[in-house]
Amino acid sequence: MTQALLLVDVQNDFSPSGALPVVDGDQIVPVINRLIPHFKHIVATKDWHPAGHSSFASSNQQNVGEVIVLDGIPQIMWPDHCVQDSEGAEFISGLNVEAITKVIYKGTNPKIDSYSGFFDNQRLQATGLADYLHSKGIKELAIVGLATDYCVKFTALDAVSLGFKTTVVQDACRGVEMVQGDVESAWKQMKQVGCKLIQSEDITG
């Protein structure tokens, strides 16, 4: 069965010095680099927001962390991050980008956020990730990246719902933990839908 390694949003703005910092977010890079040789297909997602995206607190005169309703669904207000063509949207330095076989851009619609690598948050538009994986005959995914409690979680949940056999490599992920317990809750949710949770050494030996 053909497997792919899916890198979720390993971008500068989610590194500890970025606009939306994830504690130790950069620490997953060497772990991912050790995993890469074990996979034929390396697919990466990028948060790729237009300037003034509706999920940005600055676009709504709101404080970061507040929740408002946008087009009928709750939306957390984030700092401006991963703006298209900005340094913050680039992959974190040191990541073996030469190995990446496909990049999928998400969050490009200015009105809807997109945590999952597969769909926007209202599931109105697909990113093309599922179509790409199907075109390559990929039925199994190992997911790594940032952040555990948002984009990794929603990507993993969607992967399972789309029929992919889904593994999440826990030591190759880090969380935002906006609220204490978010990361632990994310792991539980992923496990409940059928994701297999492993450590990188289970693959690298």
Descriptive account of the structure:
This protein is α/β, with parallel strands linked by helices and 205 residues long. It has a single domain (2-50, 86-204), classed as Rossmann fold (3-Layer(aba) Sandwich), CATH 3.40.50.850. 22% of the residues lie in helices and 24% in strands. The protein contains five helices and eight strands; from the N terminus they run E-H-E-E-E-E-H-E-H-E-H-E-H. Strands 5-2-1-6-7-8 form a six-stranded parallel sheet. Helix 3 (148-161) runs parallel beside helix 4. The longest helix has 14 residues, at 148-161. The relative contact order is 0.20. The mean pLDDT is 96.
Keywords:
single chain; 205 residues; alpha/beta; Rossmann fold; 5 helices; globular
